[in-house]
Specification:
Elements lengths: L5 E10 L3 E4 H7 L4 H8 L3 E4 L7 H15 L9 E5 L10 H8 L6 E5 L5 H14 L6 E8 L9 H4 L4 E11 L4 E9 L7 E3 L10 H5 L5 E3 L1 H22 L9 E4 L4 H11 L10 H4 L6 H8 L9 E8 L3 E8 L8
Parallel strand pairs: 4-5, 4-6, 11-12
Antiparallel strand pairs: 1-7, 2-3, 6-7, 8-13, 9-10, 12-13
The chain binds oxa(dethia)-CoA.
Length: 335
């Protein structure tokens, strides 16, 4: 019997810039404290990409370069590259194209996906379809954001949360039962008013006036977003478990978007998972938007075992949210 082709992750990598912005340093910039940030979010420090004219692609290139090296993949073999980001280098062309060109991936299908903090899981589910149909054999998915480029560092309600970083995975076909088994993804555009960047798009091109009003920065109504996130991320994880007959003991890892430790704890509680089975690196990187989930996979790669059941879950601007169920394909580090 021929078994279904599934898209399995066969390598992961991550890249964060060197500069560490600590809670202490932020406390000197705005009216905040390490105690407030740690207790409300779980974040201790985040990375910031410094350097003139360095966009998100600079981090994505590093992450994908490492991924290709680790997995022994020749750039010429890559069929497709998807880049999840809300901080593209340019409005167009896609950052995916810039990354592809820099790494010698010529004439591949590459494009960006904009689903904010859910960008990586939306891109992973999209890329998997191309693998499952048999159309493509090696697909790179990179999640990257240079949030520091759209954050107002005089606004204490947003500047403490976000950081810069990138993570990437390689997807390849599998017929042994590993890979992406299910997903449930959602968008609800009524959430736009609570979390957006107003100026700089076609509705409100940047003008001196909206620039002076800081409308080119992230606007977030934190509590409204928190309330929606805490319920919906937990619920979608539970639904994916239910419809795949997974009990808490069957789930080896929850790989959650790292926006706020309290949101992560709520999802783990709904799923019945103890904290040692929840990937967490928010304390080191903060919320890197599309980068959080692959950066978690990269940090925890050594602990992962062939056959582990993973639930990847995210929530973000849009609103967008969802969960993926996948069976991990390999033991420990791929080097
Ligand atoms: O990943 C994308 C999706 N985004 C999210 O998932 C973010 C969801 N939201 C959150 O994580 C939380 O709402 C925040 C971390 C943004 C804020 O935490 P909160 O517990 O909801 O705080 P709050 O907005 O209710 O503010 C409580 C108080 C306020 O002061 P008053 O009005 O009670 O005097 C804020 O002004 O905390 C104040 N505050 C701060 N104080 C010190 C807000 N930010 C800070 C700060 N330092 N950085």
């Amino acid at each position: 019997m021929i078994s279904k082709i599934r898209a399995a992750i066969t390598g992961v990598s991550g890249y964060v810039p060197d500069y560490i912005l600590t809670n202490e340093e932020l406390s000197q910039m705005v009216d905040t404290s390490d105690e407030w940030i740690t207790s409300r979010t779980g974040i201790k420090e985040r990375r910031i990409l410094k350097g003139k004219n360095k966009g998100a692609s600079a981090m994505a290139i590093e992450a994908v370069k490492k991924l290709l090296h680790k997995t022994g993949t020749d750039p010429q073999e890559v069929d497709m590259l998807l880049c999840a980001t809300v901080t593209p280098d340019y409005t167009f062309p896609a950052t995916a194209n810039i990354v592809s060109a820099a790494l010698g991936l010529r004439q591949v299908l590459s494009y960006d996906i904009n689903a904010a903090c859910s960008g990586f899981i939306f891109a992973l589910a999209t890329a998997a379809q191309f693998v499952e149909t048999g159309a493509y054999k090696k697909v790179v998915v990179v999640g990257v954001d240079k949030m520091s480029s759209i954050i107002d560092y005089s606004d204490r309600t947003t500047c403490v949360i976000f950081g810069d970083g990138a993570g990437a995975v390689l997807l390849e076909p599998d017929q042994e039962g590993y890979g992406l088994l299910d997903f449930k993804l959602h968008s609800d555009g009524t959430g736009c008013k609570y979390l957006h960047k107003k100026a700089g798009g076609s509705a409100f091109p940047v003008t001196i006036r909206n620039f002076l009003e800081n409308q080119h920065y992230v606007y977030q109504e934190g509590q409204a977003v928190f309330k929606f996130a805490v319920v919906n991320m937990a619920e979608v994880c539970y639904e994916v478990m239910q419809r795949n007959g997974l009990k808490a003991e069957d789930v080896h890892w929850l790989v959650p978007h790292q926006a706020n430790k309290r949101i992560i704890d709520a999802a783990a509680e709904r799923m019945g998972l103890p904290e040692e089975r929840v990937m967490l690196n928010i304390q080191k990187y903060g919320n890197t938007t599309a980068g959080t989930i692959p950066l978690c996979l990269n940090d925890y790669e050594q602990a992962l075992r062939r056959g582990d059941n993973l639930i990847l879950a995210a929530f973000g601007g849009g609103f967008t949210w969802g969960a993926l169920y996948l069976k991990w394909k390999y033991d420990g580090h791929r080097s």
